[in-house]
Amino acid sequence: MENNEPKTLLEVKQLKQYFPVKKEKLFEAKKYVKAVDDISFTLEKGTTLSIVGESGCGKSTTGRAILRLDEPTEGEVLYQNVDLARLSKKELKKVRGDIQVIFQDPFASLNPRQTIRSMLNEAMEIQQVLDKSKREDRMLELMSLVGLPADALERLPHEFSGGQRQRIGIARALSVNPKIIVCDEAVSALDVSIQAQILNLLKKLQRKFGLTYLFISHDLSVVRHISDRVMVMYLGKIVEIAEKQDLFDNPQHPYTKALLSAIPIPDLDVKREKIQIKGDVPSPIDPPSGCRFHTRCPFADDHCKNVEPELRKVGETNHMVSCHYAEKMLFN
User: Fold this and answer.
1) Cα torsion for 42, 44, 48, 51, to the nearest 10°?
2) pTM for the full model?
3) Is domain 2-98+178-257 in CATH 3.30.360.10, yes or no?
């Protein structure tokens, strides 16, 4: 890249994703699940940005909103200066090939009645990738790239293991020559040894094709292996975002620090104090005032309860944190 600086490929601005809740009473005010509530971030070309957090934090919903699998309530999703959130279905179809997805469940995401050849050919036909005469060579190349034999093209999804089915999902995403791939918990349903294989495959493909990943996961050990940057979400908000090593070495938010303390260490001689987060995650229908985390944070005071912290830069790096007291190092 020119000047050794990453180029922004995708920019998300003030994205909101609200889901209406069915009224229980006739004259009750309309309520919404605020799954994603006013978040902004960028995705740099050729890099991997991971989104982590507890179940219900909004990480998968963010990915779905970017892909327009769910229609965003508000905000902009700028891809090459085009707002995907404002495109018509016809216009969106033209850029679908550039932004693909690998789903969590490698079986449910594949049509059980289609052969692998049919799936790959259908994807290329819809996006008008290559002439029909050249697609056969492309499909054989894709099988080789993801580590499957050529005869896999004639088989049905149920004939493969979970790891092999995820390789097929990767091949389908690659078939239309994407620039961005959203990996939505792409390895969480797999055994640990298979997870490592799939992660190594994703990194290999990224180097070969210059791919950009938005990697959604709850597993910080996995995130540490594949990420360039990490974004931590809590109850629909970004609480921290930083370069991977900076975030793991110097977490600035108490929620991030608690998440990192829960990572298992494969060494019996190394002891780490596990930070317990008390209480349950509040309802996204009626989130707390001020800092969303204040109901579970041991350092919260009245200022935290009443004033929502801004996502701001701390230190000399591009380390961003949403906490009033990050600089005071109360949690280090």
Assistant:
1) 0
2) 0.91
3) no
